Amino acid sequence: MFVKQRMTANPFTVTPDVSIPDALAVMEEHGVRHLPVVDAGAVVGVISRNDIAAASPSKATTLSAQEATYLISKLRVAKVMSRPAVVISPDALLEEAATVLRDGKIEMLPVVADGALVGVITESDILDAFIDILGFRDVGIRLTIEAPDEPGMLSLMTGITAAHQANIQHLAVHRGNLDTSVVVVGLNTPNTQAIEADLEAAGMRILARRDNSA
User: Fold this and answer.
1) Are 32 and 121 in contact (CB under 8 A)?
2) Do 142 and 212 touch, CB atoms closer than 8 A?
3) Strand residue runs (E) in 77-115
4) If you count Cβ atoms within 10 Å of the first and of the last residue's Cβ in the chain, which end, N or C, has fewer?
5) What sequence ranges are listed for the domain ACT (predicted)?
6) 65: enclosing H helix or E strand
7) Other Cβ atoms closer than 10 A to 74
C-alpha cells in the first residue's frame, strides 16, 4: 500500500507570516492538530498545537492575561513552526511513512510531489490502514492461527481454506519466535468449524476466532 492511497489530499495550510491565533483558529475550525506551513508553494515547516503550547507564556508567568494574549497575538508561525519539515513522497510505501513517523516521534508528514504539497499522512491514517489491512471490521470470520514456521505451511493453510470454498479476504503473518508464526486470516464464510478442524489436524492451533458475521 502506498502513501497516496491513505493520505488526506488538499490539506489545510498556513503561511509563515500568519499569526499564532489565526493558525489556532484554522486548527480548531477543521479539527486538526498540525498544519503544513507553505511559502511560495514550497513546504517550509510544520506547526502543531504542541509547538504553540511550547511557545506560549507559562501559567506561572507574572504577565497578566491581557499581556500574555498580546504577546501571543504578535507571534508569527515562522517563529514557532518546526523546521525543516520532514516530508514524504506519495509513492512511498505506507510502512515507510509509519517508520518515519515512529522514529521521528512526529504525528504528521506533509506529502510532497515535484516540490509541491499534495497531501498529509498522519498517525491516524496509519492506524486506519492497519485496521483495514487486518480486516478487523469486515464481515466474516477472523482466525488467529499459530503455525509451525517452516516452508510450505502458508501454502498448506490456503489449500485447506480453498478446499472448503472459503475466500481469504485478509492475511497477515507475524513471526512470534524461531519455531512458530502467528497468522491472521479473514475469511468470507460464517462457518469455519470444518476449516478449523483441518487446520488443527495439519499441526496448527487456533488462538482466537472473531465472528463479524452479524
Assistant:
1) no
2) yes
3) 108-113
4) C
5) 142-213
6) helix 65-74
7) 11
User: In this structure, is the dihedral angle defined by the CA atoms of residues 7, 9, 12 and 15, taken in order, positive or negative?
Assistant: positive
Classify the phi-psi angles of 203: left when phi > 0, otherwise alpha if psi is within -120 to 50, otherwise beta: left
| Domains of the chain with CATH codes | 3-130 (3.10.580.10), 137-211 (3.30.70.260)
The yes-or-no verdict on residue 143 having pLDDT over 50 is: yes
Distance CA 184, CA 154 (A): 11
- Residue written as cell 497531501? 119
User: DSSP secondary-structure letter at 114?
Assistant: T
Give me the phi and psi of 204, to 5 degrees please: -105, 165
Asked whether 85 and 45 are in contact (CB, 8 A), the reply is yes
Residues in the chain: 214
Alpha-carbon radius of gyration of the chain: 24
Tens digit of each residue's pLDDT (9 = 90 or more) over 87-113: 999 999 999 999 999 999 999 999 999
Given a cut of 50, is residue 180 above it in pLDDT? yes
Query: Which of helix, strand or coil describes residue 143?
Result: strand
β-strand partners of 180? 148
